[in-house]
Amino acid sequence: MGDMDLDGALDAVGPRLRALRKEREATLADLAATTGISVSTLSRLESGARRPTLELLLPLAKAHGVTLDELVDAPPTGDPRIHMRPVVRHGMVHLPLTRRPGGIQAYKLIIPAGEPSEPDPQVHEGYEWMYVLNGRLRVVLGEHDFVMKPGEAAEFDTRTPHWFGRAGEESVEFLSLFGAQGERAHLRAKPKAKD
């Protein structure tokens, strides 16, 4: 990145920070409380009067649930659309569909085709809801070991030992909603009209 490119990227950070904060409907005071950065510094960063530094950008990226790359590579217009980057973890592609910190997080997960792997159940705090889009997903949940097909959903407390992977050699795609302990995905149906 040349000096001119760097200046352009840094100039784009202010409008991007403002767009991210407005998208989350947060005030400068809310952000100051979350990050420990003063309201005046945050205001000067957003207006471009203060040059962003790594010490300022790290807590802001965390508060907004974005990577440093997303803050610095942002279009100069402060484009508020979500530009998520896939992450590969444990051989699965995680595509984040939400960005707000806290609350329920949504992901599309893709397990590429290949040899089925051996279950390695894990436990952690939280609650998960899964919905299979394509392929066959093998789920090991406590003493249960079953295969989910497209259109099937499961929900469980992640303190139960759990593992999922491809049931065969073909790829699998599924949606995952994950929340902290006590947060569940509630599906609400419209009440039927009374006759």
Automatic annotation (TrEMBL):
SUPFAM superfamilies: lambda repressor-like DNA-binding domains, RmlC-like cupins. It holds the Pfam family Cupin_2. Keywords: DNA-binding. Residues 17-71 form the HTH cro/C1-type domain. InterPro entries: Cro/C1-type_HTH, Cupin_2, Lambda_DNA-bd_dom_sf, RmlC-like_jellyroll, RmlC_Cupin_sf, TransReg_Diox_bact_type. Signal peptide: none annotated. This is XRE family transcriptional regulator. The lineage of its organism: Bacteria, Bacillati, Actinomycetota, Actinomycetes, Glycomycetales.
